[in-house]
Write a structure and sequence with these properties.
Layout: E1 15-19, H1 36-50, E2 54-58, H2 75-84, E3 90-93, H3 98-106, E4 113-116, H4 123-126, H5 130-137, E5 142-145, E6 167-169, H6 171-185, E7 191-195, H7 204-210, E8 216-219, H8 222-230, H9 245-257, E9 261-263, E10 267-271, E11 280-284, E12 293-297, H10 299-310, E13 314-318, H11 331-342, E14 346-349, H12 352-360, E15 369-370, H13 375-381, H14 387-390
Parallel strand pairs: 1-2, 1-5, 2-4, 3-4, 5-6, 7-8, 7-13, 8-9, 13-14, 14-15
Antiparallel strand pairs: 10-11, 10-12
Helix pairs in contact: 8-9, 10-11, 11-12
Bound molecules: adenosine-5'-triphosphate and 3-phosphoglyceric acid.
Length: 395
């Protein structure tokens, strides 16, 4: 069902209360180390301001547990936002609700932008307290949800607030939900999903939701070990989840009976320790030694996965192929990023680590879509209805 967006509202003079996800990484000196999420919200902010709305932005930053904490203040984000929008007036309010916030909103002229302080400085935010949601709602005329990255949270500023205000999607929300939604509901085929990361248990629902939809499911990373163990391989010291073996077996059976391909690594980078400087070598999965663990996929696996990706028309990727934080075990992950960059397909990357990998590989701009949501994109791939999406009005 298509949702209402910012384009469905006449904005002149209205107060647009916009939830953004400005939960950006910062270093110890409170410098923003990656402003992707801020830049991703600019189209919505500029659109509203250009149409004469008074733009009031709400976000969380970090997990301050319901009380003010200068470490998690959004003030540096307001300064950065002002530098990205040199032609606009951008102000910061050190409160998110109450008299000071109301005064700051009342002082806005059409087109002005105001960022409120971290909504998680208030206990009502994460509790989705109706009174807190109401206090936020008092600051605006229309609620715009552009925080895809927080859409899996049913909090006051992402969901509860919609009880009190009409709710439309911002451009980022529309794009995220549109691209991923289309890929899952009506993909151009062949449709290939690549799932990696540490554990099967974190991604059971993703695997279950995707398997019936895809033509091929590529499994890499630590989670592949459990599947390989079920197929009869001795994975030696590799991370294998005993508790997830039944799930892995069930998925392999389902793939066989439903004619879906599951591709597992055929070779791995084997190391004697989980350490950046560990001695390591490429081995066939069947030749892993008793004192070794698999920490990356090997070149033959890369080649097989690459062929599948290059033949696809839609590719979704979540989770690294190995311990890519350590350069010795990052090759497989970067090779997958490269293959996706070369594919003549709709390519979608979601999940914090895989997004970091495509950025480090320098190919983020070659993807059709790099999601700004970690947890949110994972829950979307699980097929769940995200609370922050559910509250947006249907057209
Ligand atoms: N073979 C392996 N053995 C052990 N750990 C591994 C292996 N392969 C990958 N990992 C680890 O898995 C972790 C990433 O898994 P995770 O499921 O969190 O990925 P993600 O979904 O992309 O990220 P996020 O949870 O941030 O959205 C990385 O820290 C990586 O080192
Ligand atoms: O970074 C994220 O995934 C979102 O901003 C949500 O943050 P949270 O996990 O603290 O709710």
């Amino acid at each position: 069902m298509p949702k209402k967006t910012v384009e469905d509202v006449a904005w002149q003079g209205k107060r647009a209360l916009v939830r953004v996800d400005f939960n950006v990484p910062m270093d110890d000196a409170r410098q923003i180390t990656d402003d992707t999420r801020i830049r991703a919200a600019l189209p919505t902010i500029a659109y509203l301001s250009d149409r004469g709305a008074r733009v009031i932005l709400m976000s969380h930053l970090g997990r301050p547990k319901g009380e003010p904490n200068p470490k998690y203040s959004l003030r540096p984000v307001a300064d950065h936002l002002a530098s990205l929008l040199p032609d606009k007036r951008v102000a910061f309010c050190p409160e998110a609700v109450g008299e000071e916030a109301q005064r700051a909103v009342a002082a806005l002229s059409d087109g002005d932008i105001l960022l409120l302080e971290n909504v998680r400085f208030y206990p009502g935010e994460e509790k989705n307290d109706p009174q807190f949601a109401r206090q936020l709602a008092d600051l605006g005329d229309v609620f715009v949800n552009d925080a895809f990255g927080s859409a899996h949270r049913a909090h006051a500023s992402t969901a509860g607030i919609a009880e009190y205000l009409p709710c439309v999607a911002g451009f980022l929300m529309e794009k995220e939900v549109g691209i991923m939604g289309r890929a899952l509901a009506n993909p151009e085929r062949p449709f290939v999903a690549i799932i990696g990361g540490a554990k099967v248990s974190d991604k059971i629902k993703v695997l279950e939701n995707l398997l019936p939809k895809v033509d091929a499911l590529i499994i890499g990373g630590g989670m592949a070990n459990t599947f390989l163990a079920v197929e009869g391989h001795d994975m030696a010291k590799s991370l294998v989840e005993e508790d997830a073996k039944d799930t892995a077996r069930r998925l392999l059976d389902l793939a066989r009976t439903s004619n879906r391909k599951i591709l597992l690594p055929v070779d791995v980078v084997a190391a004697k320790a989980f350490a950046p400087d560990a001695e390591h070598t490429v081995r066939l999965v069947s030749e892993l030694q008793p004192d070794e663990m698999a920490l990356d996929i090997g070149p033959a696996s890369v080649e097989a996965f690459r062929r599948e990706i290059l033949a696809a028309k839609t590719v979704i990727w979540n989770g690294p192929m190995g311990v890519f934080e350590m350069p010795a075990f990052a090759k497989g992950t970067f090779a997958i990023a490269q293959a996706m960059a070369e594919a003549n397909a709709t390519t979608i990357v979601g999940g914090g680590d895989s997004v970091a990998a495509v950025e480090q590989a320098g190919v983020a701009d070659k993807m059709t879509h790099v999601s700004t949501g970690g947890g949110a994109s994972l829950e979307f791939l699980e097929g769940r209805t995200l609370p922050g999406v559910a509250v947006i009005e249907d057209k």
